[in-house]
Amino acid sequence: MAEWTEQELRASVDAYLLMLTDELAGRAYSKTEVRKQLLAGALRNRSSGSIEYRMQNISSVLRGMKRPWIEGYKPARNVGEATAARIRRHIVELDQRAATDPTNALEGAVPLPERQMKPGNTPPQSPSEPALTLPPGGDRGEEGQRIFQLQAEVERDPKLRKEARRLNVQKYGQITCEACLFGHSDPAMFDVHHPTPLAIGVRTTHAEHLLVLCPTCHRRAHRKSKLDPFTLLELRDWVAAGRP
């Protein structure tokens, strides 16, 4: 089989990121339907099996980039470095395209209106006033002006947060920061912190894995590294030293 062209790789990454965006947002999507559209279009010269394997390649590259990947596409092993580099380049280019032109980003492989109107998805809403698309330079609109931005969000389970707070109250008697031991009767004044960052990707999380922190200690936890926050012991040492 001939080597995949840049157009074929681009279409695969494009379709994958669309599905990933839906998965992270909790929207329904069909991998089978996306594959059918690819086979009828940009990947007409490829087999269903080769598309499946290519999606697993993309999962492998995303995992290597410390980014979320689609749970149904298990990362492939031994992806060639040349292939991985090509896939990575398309991911970065599509990220940049989404940042500079949200209306055209991620819609080459699966038409956006078809995708948004599938059962289980929410149809696009028309804003009450014109939105502002951010220019490439990062300049923003005037304060109070409505803008449009495209971003992927990592899914958080509210039931886990609720259970983590319940366990905290059970342990301390009232909701309490586990780093500085500040306590209060209002649970809304506290955050639930993931010691293992969500940015690492999909995994099983239990309430016992989470920490309840006050906003100050929570912010401090993330001042070290996005993928390696301060541990609870380090936070307690910081508090004991007077929060320098």
UniProtKB/TrEMBL annotation:
Stored InterPro entries: HNH_nuc
Region of interest called Disordered, as start-end residue ranges on this chain: 99-143
HNH nuclease domain mapped to chain residues: 163-219
Superkingdom assignment: Bacteria
CDD domains assigned: HNHc
Name used for this protein in its record: HNH nuclease domain-containing protein
Species for this entry: Sphingomonas xanthus
